[in-house]
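fwd from M.: "can u put these together and see what the complex looks like"

so here's what she sent:
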Amino acid sequence: MASIELSAIRKSFDGTEILRGVDLRIEDGEFISLVGPSGCGKSTLLRVIAGLEPQSAGEVRIDGVSADGIRPSARNLAMVFQSYALYPHLSAFDNIAVPLRMRRLSAIERLPLVGALLPSRRRKERCIRDDVARVADQLEIAHLIGRKPAQLSGGQRQRIAVGRAIVRQPVAFLFDEPLSNLDAKLRVHMRAELAQLHRRLNTTFVYVTHDQAEAMTMSSRIAVMIGGELVQVGTPTDIYDNPRDIRVAEFVGSPKINILPGQICDDGRIEALGVLLRLTSSAASGACRIGVRPERIDLGSGPFTGYVVHAENMGSEAFLHLAVDGSDARLVARIDDPRRLPPIATPVSFGFAMDAVRAFNAEGKRIEVDSEHIERVRERAIV
Amino acid sequence: MSDAATIDAAAVATPAARPALRKRDQRALTAYGLVAPAFVLMLLMLLGPLASVIALSFTDYQLGAPALSWIGLANYQDMFADRVFWISLRNTLTYVVIVVPGAVTLGLGIALLIQSGTSLRSLYRTIYFLPVMATLIAMAVVWEFMLHPQFGLVNGLLRGAGLPAFSWLQDRGTALYALCAIGIWQAVGFNMVLFLAGLVSIPKQLYEAAEMDGTASAWARFRLVTWPMLGPVTTFVIVISGIRSFQVFDTVHILTKGGPSKSTEVLIHTMYTEGFEFFRSGYGAALTVVFLVFVLLLTLIKARLADRGVQTA
């Protein structure tokens, strides 16, 4: 159990800056996801925390103690790799036992022939066997314990890798895209298992992924990284509902948030696709972008018109792709009942509630908007 | 009635079946045709000579003699009664037992050093590989000068350090060991290249996993990751070094000719002297068969270990 503090972490490889000053405080016992598109530096940040990659500048503190210059083996962190990195020549049992043997046995006790004769080694081996068996029971891999990694499926290997990580009770767990080599169904299943594991162990989890769904479903906080910087850190709800940056808004959520071209008029009122919205902003006038999540688009009525170009039926819900009249913009709207799916080329009118609007300025930063006062009163009257 | 039906059916079936059959025959023929060149070459270059050597070892054939007669196991009887054969067998085994571990551990050590270095890797690789590329006969002459009792570099260095000098190749006690040293020097580069190839293919993540699992020392990481992952390469290197050491001949022939007083007599050199200096081809063939048995044994061990390696990987 430990908190991890990162301050002004920078890392460059051959002159290319991968991390551009990352500050992050990871609380004790928290499940935090580092999420971002590939190449954003999230894996590098994890490796800096682990100590596998020394940072070019900045400081890593684990439980308030600076970890700089401390070897990865001495940081008492455990890591699950994307490729699992199991030792192919060792059985599942031995793979899980490695961290225990490395820490509990002395160099002499680890010697192949001489070590086995020592009574102290035999005593410790018995302890190790019990601990491995306990972890194997927890992860339901007891029946696989004698097999070599080559004889295991991807999901089973993944469990062994998790077993190797949890067996010695480290202060924090680092996960480097551990589910990305699994098939879609198993990935969803393992998501729930990892979240449960976190609740049971109650230890700090740092989880790197490029899959926003994994981050949304498992973590207590999400840190969105783009281009080597932390763009926003917050709870999943906060990140989804209240993105501070258009890149965050676009990265989180599937299907992607709809972005419509807009304009802030000189009097502060906001226009989208040429339609004046009942919103004002104190931001400088000029071009802006209006973001609306697919589930917040109301079909059937509203000031905008368009027609259906494509429909995706997911079974429990459906997504309509709409072309907007008088604009190149395409947008996606969610329909809760796929049985009411309109055929392709059907003309539709649509709109959205004003509290669904997330407006961003030309630089992509979020701008605050206010509903016009009179309109708000009228809305209340209707309700 | 039913018989007639069957016959009819057969009569109908045959014309249809025949082209299919012919097609299969043709394909088999093509397959044999494609195998034939390799098979003929193998027969001519390997199996034929091997069979004739084995046959020759049961005759009293002498090189250039007009006739030969079947003498059964007499050559083998002579051989096992001959003191020189046992000396040369013992010397060969001594040579193998010294050169194989020496060349393998040094090759591995140098490969690990080169791999862990950051700069000048290819330079070191080239330097250590030079002895493999150089002609061993020419190098043997160079070694002869280096080991010269009076003017040699080795003795010069020893004298400079205040140590006693030896007449390396002329002394019965040191000649074989001097040859072993040359053998190791020659084989290290080859082994190093094989080990380097093996080291490169070990996934980096395994070392990182080992580091996270708490292996603090380089030795612990070597024991946990490097050594087991190099297993198949090591087996290969040991067997290849073993076979090559069994074949030691060039240095012996150039530097000592088996002397002084048979102290460096090795199997292939005995074979050469019997066959091409005393022209006792039949006897030489019998020696060759013994040599082949050893090489075959090593190859079988390798095949067995390689099979096991595949299963555990």
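replying to her w this: Residues 243 and 295 of chain B are 6 Å apart (CA to CA).
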